[in-house]
Amino acid sequence: MPYPEMMIHGMRQELAQLGIEETKTPEAVTEALNTDGTVMVVVNSVCGCAAGGVRPGIAMALANSENKPDRAITVFAGADIDATDVAREHFTGYMPSSPAIGILKGGQLVQMFERRDLEGRPPQVIAQALSEAFAKHCGSANAANN
């Protein structure tokens, strides 16, 4: 049974306020990932590590990175169940985890941050790792190199 929307609304809003698009249906995820550009896919979660490190780390990375994904979407584990399943289908070779962040380019996974890469890390460390991933995979200067 999915989490009640009133319980997770604020957690959704933290990412929506950053301009990250909520994709609550499988069709919305598929449409968002059907691009030649880079897409950051955030699997949002109710856990403490999402609140204490991941969402603040994403905010810091987006605010302070020169290169950013062409598009950023989010699904909510435990709420957008079918949409989350479709997003995770693109995380080939990785077990489902939440929170999680995948960077896809041309529909292919190029970098993955699993829960084990995020849990217990302060926002600054997560932001730095995301900024490095953005520098490597996003932006016109890197498009020809990756």
What does the model show?
The chain is of the alpha/beta class. It has a single domain, classed as Glutaredoxin, CATH 3.40.30. 47% of the residues lie in helices and 18% in strands. The protein has 7 helices and 5 strands. It has helices at 5-16, 26-33, 48-64, 81-89, 115-118, 123-137, 140-143; strands at residues 21-22, 38-44, 71-76, 100-105, 108-113. The protein has a 5-stranded mixed beta sheet with strand order 1-3-2-4-5, with helices on both faces. Strand 2, helix 3 (48-64) and strand 3 (71-76) form a beta-alpha-beta unit. The protein is globular, with a radius of gyration of 14 Å. The relative contact order is 0.21. Mean pLDDT is 94; it is low at 141-146.
